[in-house]
Structures are given as C-alpha cells and as structure tokens.
Design goal:
It is a single chain. The chain is α/β, with parallel strands linked by helices. The chain has 13 helices and 23 strands. The protein folds into 3 domains: 3-81, Roll (Archaeosine Trna-guanine Transglycosylase, Chain: A, domain 4), CATH 2.30.130.110; 122-246, Rossmann fold, CATH 3.40.50; 254-480. 29% of the residues lie in helices and 20% in strands. α1 (133-146) links the parallel β12 (122-127) and β13 (156-158). The model has no long low-confidence stretch (mean pLDDT 95).
C-alpha cells in the first residue's frame, strides 16, 4: 500500500512512495488520482476541501486550507497554514490511563554509593569557564591514554561549553545549575572540576551551587593556582581512577532507568514510525517502574491539550499550562513569531505546520499519565512521564535531558543528524532509506513499521537494544565521539 490514511476522520493521506501526476492509488475505501507529482512522505487530499476548512491528520486539525483544494491535490505549505493562536486558556478534561502490567527487565549497571544507578563508568572533566576548554581537552586526552588499559573505566571525557564568565542573572545561574547537574550525573563515576581562577563561575562560587560532594569522586583544580595545570590535572584524574577502576557492573532493574525522548530533523514519517515507537517504549518502561522525559516545548504547541488532559492531577495540569504559556511568552518578549516552525528540512520531508509537527512530536511520550513538570535545569525526581522545559534546538534539548539525569536519550530523525550528548544517544531512523544510507550515524530502523513489522515486535526489539546500551553497548554517536552540550541563553553577555 503506497497510501496511508492515519485516522478514519482524516481528509488527507500520507504517501509512502512518490506519485506521478495522473497516477491512481487505493487505500481502505479510498481511491485517489494525483493531480501533480508528489514526493514521498507528503500529503494528498482525499476529498475536496474548501478554503478556510480544517485539514485533518491523525484525527486532529493540522491547519486551515488557504486555497480551495481538490481531491488528489498536493497539500503542503502553499495551500495550508497554521490555525494556532497565541496565549490561550485551557480546561482540564482528564483522560487518564492505567498501563497494563509488563514483565520486569534488568540490565547491568553501576550502583553508586548514594543508591543511584549509572550506565557508564566514565571520568568527566568539567570546566567552570570556557577559557579552560582546551586545557580540559588536553587533560582528558593524556589521562585517557594513561588509563586506556583499564577495562572497567569507560573513558575520560571533557565537557566543553562557551560560558562561565561575562554572564548575568538567570543565565549565569542556569550555567552553574546545568554544570552542577552534570557533575552529579550517575554516568560519571568521577569528575575533575577545572577552573581558571578569575571567572565569575570560579570554583569557590560554583561549590555553593554544587553543594556537598564525595571527595573520592569529585576533585577541583584552579589553573591559575598551579604551575602546570595539565600535569596536575592528569595526576588528579589518575588518582580518581584508582577508585573508579574498582567499580563493577551489577544487575539492576529497568525501573532504575531514566530515558530522555527527543526528535530532530523530522519528516513526514516521524509521526507514524519513530515517534510512536518511542512512545510505545516509554509506556513499556514506565509500566516497569522506570521514568521518561519529554522536552521541546515549542513542539508541543498545537498538541498541548492532549498532554494536559493526561496530567495526573489538577496541579500537574496547571504546571503544564504554565509550561506552554511561559514558553510562548518568551517568544513574545523577544518579538518573535510563536509559530516560526517547522524548519526547512521538516518541510522538505513533508511536514507543513507546527500542529502537524507537534502531533507527531508528542507521540514520543506514549499514552502514559504526566506525573511531573520540570523547569529548565531541574532534575528528574518522580517516576513516570515528566515534561521538561526546553527549546526544540537539538543540542540544547539533548543537553537539558542529560542534565536532568537521563541515562540515555532516544533521538528520532527522518532527515539524519550525527549529534550526540554526554548521555548515550540512540539515533532512531523514521524511514528505512535513511537508515540504510547513514548507518554510521543511526542505531535503529523504525521505518520497518511501514513494511510489515508490528509495533509490539519493534518495541520489544528497541527495549532489548536500550537495555544492551545500558549494559555497556556503545551507540553510534559514542563510537564517533559526539558528546556535545549546549546551554540555553536568554539574557545579556557582558
């Protein structure tokens, strides 16, 4: 079947293969002839649609027709526009669900002294300021070479960033909180905090944000206070390694896992393959007692009421309302259009409006109840599905998920991207053509849902893959050394 109608009420269908003008296709109770050439992943009108009438996909409006549309017409940005408003009022209409029980699963992770679980036994070097980024990189490289033969250490890695000085107010505090969260991340068995000495975020101030730490796990080095910070840093990392090398993987419950949910470079298939698959995984993990985190707030606009009605109580509902409207207010304060989305790559892949993108994007959260709402730079503390404030930008959103305590990030893509963050990043292709083309970037092919594989079968397979990653299997991004972070900035730089 080359034509896919996603919901009985839809007035458009998705093309699974390109179609030429005059070619006729059939789906259930529908036969349609294309009025023009239409690319794979794009939409074709199933009926005549009047100007101003809603275009329906997934059973929901994805915008309004800006021109009269005939059955067989290509439906895209030339004849379809968003119908979304700005700051809105919402009513809580609970649509809660109890997930069916599923068998417990386990993986082999590292049980930390505070009871948390890590899935990597890495040593991280975290600069307090960008001025010592290169120093951190050199220390990581030299220490990594010395420790290379110790199989129980998964590597020594620097976390470079552009901030730590010349920031003011909330931006400065946000940088400190993100870095503090990474210092405390359970995937880091030990951390060297590397400062310069004269920066705003100098070590003494950063310690106030960081709070108490285990001196066997975290140590500090001020570059200006020693003659050779590279030599001293390598020595300190090797001292930390003495403790790290004694740690061993033990059997842990999947309920200990926190998994971030992300998409980037979406296409017309994202909402019918990769994102529903990740949503099914999310439900499965939560049913086992685990936790998942959905972010990218601007890509909830247009589908936010679905998430609001899944709020586990009235207070959580109000938190989601603030999450959505506060982020819209951020756009307004900067005199930017709220709905400047989707991106050019999304449009080329078949996504026409933000409603369409959001209805696909939010499917990563499955059908679970929303149990918590987190501000940017907060850490996950509640089991179940949490919503995390953050933009759609790939690097910033992935960093926010890692800093929130996610062990792993599941990242669906229909256009392809090599990006990875400090938490192992599993890249899931939404179409098989992309997976075959970019296997050096991609870990999993969700496009098989279009060729006969069932959602249950692929969910089982994805769960197996994630548990293997949690037990030490490297993702493609890890193999390529992609461990980038980007911190959200909102204010003045001095």
């Amino acid at each position: 079947m080359a034509l896919l109608k996603l919901h009985p009420t839809d007035n458009v269908a998705l093309l699974l293969e390109p179609i030429c003008s005059g070619e006729t296709l059939e789906t259930v109770n529908t036969k349609i002839t294309a009025n023009s050439d239409i690319a794979k992943g794009h939409k074709i009108a199933l009926v005549d649609i009047a100007m101003g009438e809603s275009i329906i996909k997934y059973g929901f409006p994805i915008g309004l027709a800006t021109l009269p549309i005939q059955a067989g017409d290509w439906v895209h940005t030339h004849n379809l526009a968003t119908a979304l408003g700005e700051i809105l009022s919402y009513e809580y209409k609970p649509a809660l669900r109890t997930l069916p029980p599923v068998p417990a699963r386990t993986f082999k992770g590292y049980r930390r002294s505070d009871g948390r679980v890590g899935i990597r036994n890495e040593i991280w070097i975290i600069p307090t300021v960008a001025c010592v980024n290169r120093n951190a990189e050199l220390i990581a490289r030299l220490a990594g070479e010395q420790l290379k033969g110790i199989s129980s250490i998964d590597g020594v890695f620097e976390i470079k960033h552009p901030y730590g000085c010349s920031q003011m107010g909330d931006d400065h505090r946000t940088t400190q909180r993100i870095l503090a969260n990474l210092v405390n991340h359970p995937n880091a068995a030990a951390v060297l905090v590397l400062g310069l000495g004269c920066e705003n975020n100098h070590i003494a101030e950063f310690k106030q944000v960081l709070g108490p730490v285990d001196s066997k796990r975290v140590c500090f080095l001020e570059a200006q206070a020693v003659e050779d910070e590279i030599e001293t840093g390598v020595r300190l990392v090797c001292e930390l390694a003495a403790t790290v090398s004694k740690m061993e993987r033990v059997v842990c419950s999947a309920a200990d896992l926190v998994v971030g949910l992300k998409c980037g470079g979406s296409d017309g298939f994202s909402g019918i393959t990769g994102n529903p698959l990740v949503g099914a995984f999310s439900d499965r993990l939560i049913a086992m007692g685990g936790s998942t985190v959905l972010t990218e707030v601007p890509e909830m606009f247009g589908a936010e009421s679905i998430l609001m009605n899944r709020a586990s109580n009235e207070a959580i509902f109000q938190d989601i309302v603030h999450l959505i409207n506060d982020f819209k207010q951020y756009f307004i304060l900067h005199n930017q259009p709220i709905y400047e989305n989707p991106a050019p790559g999304n449009k080329k892949g078949g996504i026409s409006t933000l409603e369409e993108k959001s209805l696909g994007c939010t499917q990563k959260g499955g059908t679970s109840n929303v149990t918590d709402v987190l501000k940017y730079a907060d850490i996950v503390t509640t089991k179940g599905l949490s919503l995390l404030s953050g933009p759609g930008n790939d690097a910033v959103a992935a960093t926010a998920l890692a800093a929130a305590g996610c062990h792993i990030v599941l990242f669906t893509t229909g256009r392809g991207t090599p990006l990875g963050t400090m938490s192992p990043t599993v890249k899931i292709a939404t179409n098989s053509d992309l997976y075959q083309k970019k296997q050096t970037w991609l870990d999993f092919d969700a496009g098989r849902l279009l060729t006969g594989e069932t959602l249950d079968t692929l969910t089982d397979e994805l769960m197996d893959f994630v548990l293997a990653v949690a037990s030490g299997k490297q993702t493609r991004a890890e193999q390529l050394g992609f461990r980038d972070i980007a911190i959200f900035k909102n204010g003045v730089t001095v």
